[in-house]
Design goal:
This protein is an alpha+beta fold. It has two helices and four strands, in the order ααββββ.
């Protein structure tokens, strides 16, 4: 996919988010979700450290009851840009 088609796909996804989902700050650790998010599951993942080591983080999946958007929250205390991301609809 080209950059233009990637941008168009991102714009279409934004149009289908409910107002509450559109207000979630993405990729920022400790940003709040919203009341319609229902927790689905959680799992552990290994991330690399800057010094060459590794650590374990928790990834929790959510689904919005209002619009059906699927979210994932990454709880990584060493990465300020971890946090909410859209994983599907």
């Amino acid at each position: 996919m080209t950059n233009e088609s990637n941008q168009r796909a991102a714009e279409l996804k934004k149009m289908t988010l409910c107002a509450s989902c559109a207000g979630i700050q993405r990729n920022w650790r400790r940003a709040p979700g919203h009341a319609e998010l229902v927790q689905q599951s959680s799992r552990k993942a290994v991330r690399s450290d800057a010094d060459g080591g590794s650590h374990t983080v928790t990834l929790t999946s959510y689904r919005c009851d209002a619009c059906g958007t699927r979210w994932e929250y990454e709880n990584d205390k060493t990465n300020q840009q971890a946090g909410w991301s859209v994983v599907g609809q």
